[in-house]
Amino acid sequence: xxxxxxNDDDGVSDTNxxxxxxxxxxxxxxxxxxxxxxxxxKDITRREGAVVDDKATLLQREKLVTRRKDAVELRENAAxxxxxxxxxxxxxxxVRESVIHGVDTGQTQRQEVVELRENAVxxxxxxxxxxxxxxxxxxxxxxxxxxxxxxxxxxxxxxxQANARLVVSVIEAHKLAEQVETVxxxxxxxxxxxxxxxxxxxxxxxxxxxQAIELARRxxxxxxxxxxxxxxxxxxxxxxxxxxxxxLLQSVAQRxxxxxxxxxxxxxxxxxxxxxxxxxxxxxxxxxxxxxNMLTALAAPHLIDxxxxxxSVSIGISIYPDDGQEAETLLKSADSAMYHAxxxxxxxxxxxxxxxxxxxxxxxxxxxxxxxxxxxxEFVLYYQPKIxxxxxxxxxxxxxxxxxxxxxxxxxxxQFVPIAEDCGLILPIGRWVLREACLQARTWRQAGLPPITVxxxxxxxxxxxxxxxxxxxxxLEETGLKPHYLELxxxxxxLMQDRELTDSVLHALANLGVKLSIDDFGIGYxxxxxxxxxxxxxxxxxxxxxxxxxxxxxxxxxxxxxICMSKKLKLRVIAQGVETPEQYAFLLARHCDEGQGYYFSRxxxxxxxxxxxxxxxxxxxxx
Length: 623
Ligand SMILES: Nc1nc2c(ncn2[C@@H]2O[C@@H]3COP(=O)(O)O[C@H]4[C@@H](O)[C@H](n5cnc6c(=O)[nH]c(N)nc65)O[C@@H]4COP(=O)(O)O[C@H]3[C@H]2O)c(=O)[nH]1
Prior knowledge:
Elements: E1 4-5, E2 13-14, H1 30-105, H2 110-147, H3 153-192, H4 202-219, E3 222-230, H5 233-240, H6 242-257, E4 265-270, E5 273-281, H7 284-299, E6 302-304, E7 307-309, E8 313-320, H8 327-343, E9 349-351, H9 354-373, E10 379-388, E11 394-405, E12 409-411, H10 417-423, H11 426-446, E13 453-458, H12 460-463, H13 468-479, E14 486-491, H14 492-495, H15 499-512, E15 515-521, H16 528-533, E16 538-541, H17 543-548, H18 553-568, E17 572-575, H19 581-589, E18 594-595, H20 606-615
Helix pairs in contact: 1-2, 1-3, 2-3, 5-6, 8-9, 11-13
The structure holds ligand C2E.
Ligand C2E is lined by residues 384, 400-401, 412-414, 417, 426, 430, 433, 457-459, 489, 519-520, 576-577, 579, 597-598, 603.
């Protein structure tokens, strides 16, 4: 008998299979056999279906895992993007701060501006990349979201987060772009304006000048260019410090603004130089009127850091088209005219005249030749004796430089020392003078001539050079001259500079044994209490007072007062530029002990001076 039992799973199972020759197989009627076969086939199909179902589930799971991976990747991408944005934001903030700092302090140098501009360009490129990055990421999200319609809630949530982060990134990118715009605008401003005064700078002024030329050419009109610089600004800067100097320049800029119309341009060329473009004048006299207004406006005291500062300017004026048809020529003409204004006593204005450019060219060629003069050994020292007016004995000598030019002949120092000071060449020239004078003094000593002190002029630039003291020490050592045979003549302006530094150098020199004197005393502003404390040993009365002391009572009073004061302060005093017997007599009567000037001897070459030293001042010299 066939034993049929109900299976839990599919309901039918046989334990006695006749086809397999199973001992449990029974011989069934054919209709039963057909039924059994049909039932078996159904069973197999059902089982195969279950396997297919399993495969689909696996595939489904695999897809889910892949989508999860995509979502994680997206999340990571979004996080990277966010980090990148934050980083860029910091950079922008830094750039912006640098620019603002630059604008505030006026210290943004041209190089910095260039760097900032390059940074802004980089930043802009980065922002563009960032935008591209966010766009492609968004596209990817959309694509993957479409693919994953059937994604799990988890997957959807991750997608939403990634999307939200992308939105943040895009907003950041927009902000970044705005900030870069702001920085770019500021850079643009800085590139065309002076950081200290906010006036148009050289570049912008050049642009405006070119525009004015173009317009004036078309309309057949004239316009004026005013070139000006502050008289003796360097002294204020050196003595009161750059902070005060900067404020003074701001104050000057402010007052100049008040003197011109809106259509005119005032620019700062650099340092204490300003250029004004008066774009609409009918006659040259209009420019003169404005120049005069500027002189008046600047003359009132400038109150800066509790200092009442008085400044004046010298102004040179050139007119388009008479004095130049191009920007450069107009500026040059105005510059030459300004030099003449300065030479004419400062605090005034001068119109350009054609012969001025000849002098400007001459000055330029002096500078070029000066650069070669040291190398070509064209300098020579002359020596002028200092005399004890009572004994008529030579008590010292001043070394004075001359330039033996191959074409121009012997050039006096007044024609090239100021130029050498302007262009800094006075530093190597000064070192040469000091060495040459020390060597010469030593040679005279070795030749058995009476011991005397040799004096060397030191300009403010030389005194303030960082290696000045070291150079004096080294020169004395190398030339073998004893320090007390060297005297340094300083101008009053040297004493007005950085007090602490000046004091320490003066005392170091005095400790070495070097003598110190003040040249041209009376024309500066030396404080008497300072003189008392300083190691200065001698005052040299300025030639300008000595020249008129016998004819002008004011000068006579000044010279008498300086002699008297020197004695009280226990300082030696010497009158410079003594030329006449009357001046000599005046000094004797006022008990001035020492004198120097043509009355005793002109500056002479070293050999002649050696003879003077041996023989004394000959009576044959004009007296
Ligand atoms: N009219 C007139 N002039 C007289 C008389 N006695 C002397 N002098 C001139 O007065 C100037 C005196 O020199 P300083 O006041 O130091 O003024 C000097 C000094 O400031 C500067 N200098 C000259 N040599 C040097 C140098 O080696 N180094 C530096 N840094 N400056 C120098 O150039 C200035 C002019 O020098 P120099 O042309 O040599 O002119 C000299 C001298 O030749 C006189 O009785 N009447």
